[in-house]
Design a protein that fits this description.
This protein is an all-alpha fold and about 210 residues long. It has helices spanning about 1-35, 40-70, 75-105, 120-140, 145-170, 175-210. α1 packs antiparallel against α4 (about 120-140), α3 runs antiparallel to α6 (about 175-210) and α5 packs antiparallel against α6 (about 175-210). InterPro entries: PhoU, PhoU-like_sf, PhoU_dom.
Amino acid sequence: MREVFQQSLRDVQDRLVLIAELVEQAITEATTAFGSSDVAIAEKVIDRVDEIEILAAELDQLTIDILARQQPVASDLRLMVGSLRMSASLERMADLAQHIAQLARYRYPESAIPAGLTKTFARMGALDVEMARKIVDLLRTQEPRIIAEVRDLDDDLDELHAKVFEKVLSDNLAETPANVVDSTLASRYHERFGDHAVGIARQIQYFISGSLD
């Protein structure tokens, strides 16, 4: 019976890793579509989110079944509870990648990025992609070092998010109201993506140490 339980725990971890890999792919393609106004790539991201939502729902059901049948304690219980929260964060990250791709599709063939913010959004996208990669590694290895790395990347992302708002509120960005709205939304989507990555890192920390601090 214990071996069956351990296999179930491994199944939960494997499913989390798979979903995280799909999220990494989604944000990578979304930032590419946003930066290059590539509507074909944007459509791929938008379509992929349905698959991630299905996998997250299946993972949640598996986790609930394990909780009901096995009644885990200590670190196993933390993993089960954390799994429900992490799957929700991963699903939300996929939604945010979809939102970024939708901005690219809405403005096609024009760019949704004002000329004065091209480099800033390229950097924000790169940070989100790097955070997504680290989340995959963290879910696979539970390496504590990665938790701090994710938080550091999020700090950089927050600084860029603040700079975007400063830029769009200044008189120096001579863009249409639509571009200003797009920039504001895109920056918020990138920033929220990072917040959810940090949330997952905190759940892994809780699984490892029993503390969120």
